[in-house]
Design goal:
3 domains, about 30% strand, Nonspecific Lipid-transfer Protein, Chain A, Eis_dom, about 400 residues, GNAT family N-acetyltransferase, Aminopeptidase, seven-stranded mixed β-sheet, Acetyltransferase_Eis, eight-stranded mixed β-sheet, 20 strands, acyltransferase, alpha+beta, transferase
């Protein structure tokens, strides 16, 4: 078996093999070849597993993204996608060979982290990935959807004044607005991924990137500049489903939530993606009106260079930790002294006794601040070697706001 890179000439074979691995058939692209989720595939970054007689039996794709780290720092990130092996060749080492080859290529590009969305949670931890951001669905019955006035004095919401406005557009009318507003949002949101321009032009992904019919509520500030949007449609059962709500601050999010929650002739409003710590449930006059779906993992993170990763992100308190990190998939191990001063970190090799011992997948989980190290200590995955080490790690690794990723790939 050979793992080889693909070219543009392999596009159809790659797509067919990937779909066959999942027992599916490719849907018909929209006119011009766009409107399908794989329209933005980067064929120079994809891999195929091929048998000795030339038959493709596995695929692994990669996108070129930027990931926003705590502190608003943007770094290159490989987005792993389209990973599959034909049923006839599973459990023969094909997946492991592709993942090993792919991680080597990521390193060769000079990148220090990789991300993915896991189709099954049990697959990717053995390759060093750990869940790092979470999301949940929130359903609100229309007849219980009133928002309460904030109790804090001095807020615009408390006085009933919204200096901005909401305009209703169709998806086809506002593509440039969506792209610009999302880009502003993702640059300030830890855990967010970029959406390259070719995704929007090719309609790759899920709505509102895909050209499916959607209404879009666009919020504009007092100067008329777009600073948020909510993409939605009313479907079966008179349920209004919001694909995503993008807002540059909490006041804009509240205005958009009020708009969709006030929609007439719908039975319920479903927000598909809200952070687990979203304030929306607290803003409802009836606290029990918001039915939260179980939080699910979204973005998984894999670190390939621990010192570079730890010195790249922003930090919000001073402190010092010795981390003993094991990477069994790549056969690597390192003990690192992490020293944080004035928001900057140094990370150097050390022979000091460790404060925490952990797997590289667990380091990926805590890296963006979305998973508390103490949680993984209590779960038996991270070992704390001294009292107070877990609490210090919790304080050090926290982000300025909870990481959240909306982008589907």
């Amino acid at each position: 078996m050979e793992i080889r890179s693909t070219t543009d000439q392999d596009f159809n074979v790659f797509v067919d093999t990937m779909h066959a691995a999942f027992g599916r058939f490719p849907e018909t692209p929209a006119e011009g070849g766009g409107g399908v989720w794989w329209a933005a595939l980067e064929m120079d970054r994809n891999l195929m597993a091929v048998t000795a007689d030339g038959r493709p039996v596995g695929t692994a794709g990669a996108y070129s993204f930027e990931l926003t780290l705590p502190g608003g720092i943007l770094v290159p990130a490989t987005g792993v996608t389209a990973v599959g092996v034909l049923p006839s060749h599973r459990r023969q080492g094909v997946l492991t060979a592709m993942m090993r080859h792919q991680l080597a290529e990521v390193r060769a590009r000079g990148e220090f982290l990789s991300v993915l969305l896991a189709s099954e949670a049990v697959i990717y931890r053995r390759f060093g990935y750990g869940p790092a951001t979470y999301t949940q669905r929130l359903t609100v019955p229309r007849h219980r959807a009133a928002l309460a006035l904030p109790r804090a004095r001095g807020t615009a919401e408390a006085t009933g004044r919204d200096t901005g406005s909401v305009e209703l557009l169709r998806r086809a009318e506002c593509g440039e607005i969506l792209e610009e507003v999302y880009d502003r949002y993702r640059r300030a949101q830890p855990g967010a991924l970029s959406r390259p321009h070719r995704w929007w032009t090719s309609g790759a992904g899920q709505p509102p990137i895909a050209p499916a019919s959607r209404h879009v509520a666009v919020h504009r500030d007092a100067d008329g500049v777009p600073d948020g949007y909510a993409s939605y449609a009313v479907g079966e059962g008179d349920a209004l489903t919001v694909d995503e709500t993008i807002a540059t601050d909490d006041a804009v999010f509240t205005a958009l939530a009020r708009f969709v929650l006030g929609h007439d002739l719908v039975r319920q409003v479903v927000f598909k993606h809200v952070p687990p710590d979203s304030p929306l449930r607290w803003q409802l006059a009836d606290f029990r009106a918001g039915e939260a779906g179980s939080a699910m993992d979204w973005l998984w993170v894999r670190l390939l260079d621990v010192p570079r990763a730890l010195t790249a992100r922003g930090w919000f308190m001073d402190g010092e930790l010795v981390l003993d990190v094991d990477d069994p998939f790549l056969g690597e191990h390192g003990r690192h002294l992490l020293t944080v001063r004035d928001g900057k970190a140094e990370c150097v090799p050390t022979d000091r006794e460790p404060d925490l011992s952990l797997d590289v997948s667990d380091l990926g989980s805590i890296y963006l601040g979305g998973t508390a190290p103490s949680t993984l200590v209590r779960a038996g995955h991270i070992r704390a070697h001294r009292p107070g080490a877990a609490a210090l790690a919790d304080a050090l690794f926290r982000a300025e706001r909870s990481p959240h990723c909306l982008h589907w790939f």
